[in-house]
Amino acid sequence: MASFQKDFKIWVMDHLPGSALLSEPLSLEPIAGDAGFRSYFRLNTQIPLLAVYSPPQEENNLAFVRVSHHFSSGKIKVPKIFAVNFEKGFMLLQDFGTELLQPLLNLDTLPQYYDLAEELLLDLQLLHPGDSIFPNYGKPQLIAELQLFQKWFVDKLLMLDLSQRDLSILDDLFELLIGNAMEQPIVIVHRDYHSRNLIVHNNQIGVIDYQDAVVGPITYDLVSLLKDCYLSWPEEIVRQRALSYKSRAVSKGLMREIKDQKFMKWFDWMGLQRHIKVMGIFARLSIRDNKESYLSELPRVVNYVLSTTFNYSELKPFNQWFSERICVCLPRYPWYSGD
């Protein structure tokens, strides 16, 4: 480890931009990371910089760089990349600072910051996806994500054995959700557009953690923002903002005019797909990666699932199954009960 740190520090020193003045020996201060395998270090340079170790065997660093350049060319605010070593997984990036959107949000500040976040999202969706930059977020990818729920949340976290009837109910729901996703207009999708991946920087919103961006359904990033896995808002506020976004998307030519009810179905069912996937991902982060803090966010995600499946008659069979097979197990777990 000492050898790696020395090698990393030498690389950082060799690739500092000319404007990155140092008044004392270079230091690399570890800072909190994200749900991936990357490690972040804040430098003591006079311009804000981050050194990043992003293990190439775990992270798609080429995708990060390509998406960064594409977003930047479209005036999307992303960290500037100063240097990359793809073989070793070293990167030197602009530091947007520590002002994540999440702790700034409350019912009073929500309109101000969500207006900015939604305008940024519209700009992102208006970008042409280019050639071979963004993978297609189609049926195989959607199925693979939904299957994370059974593998990691049901099987490994709750340790439940599912019957053929249980599996049939899941299959029926997955078909509905995939059909809903596939009928929507296609745009660039960040795929994790929420309050922990948006940073307030110089009175603007900057976006991070976008290396998994794809082309996919228009409501995916919107529902990721408005039905955030790390905070929640009253349903009426969510509905009002979703429909306001729909009107702006129509006016900008991103989609044709459709009935509000249809758009809300797109939005709600897309959110259900995401939240079912997230239950699997948060369980995997805890079990495989020892990041147990993500389990404390699951009660909110469970509530999203219950609410959405209660509000649509087509989803009632899953709502009943989820209540009877899954929810009855949850109070025994400290991360759910709060004990």
Question: How would a crystallographer describe the biggest sheet?
Answer: 5 strands, antiparallel
Give the uncertain stretches in residue-range form: none
**H-E order:** HEEEHEEHHHEEEEHHHHHH
> So, CATH architecture of the largest domain?
Alpha-Beta Complex
Gyration radius, rounded: 21 Å
Instruction: Write down the CATH topology of the largest domain.
Output: Aminoglycoside 3'-phosphotransferase, Chain: A, domain 2
CATH level-4 homologous superfamily of the largest domain: Aminoglycoside phosphotransferase (APH), C-terminal lobe
Write down the overall mean pLDDT: 93
Indicate the proportion of strand residues: 5-15%
Number of helices: 11
Distance between the termini: 37 Å
The share of residues in helices is 40-55%
Number of strands: 9
Helix/sheet category = alpha+beta
User: CATH class of the largest domain, anyone?
Assistant: Alpha Beta
Number of structural domains: 2
Name the strands of the widest sheet in spatial order: 1-2-3-5-4
Per the principal axes of the C-alpha atoms, what is the gross shape? Answer: globular
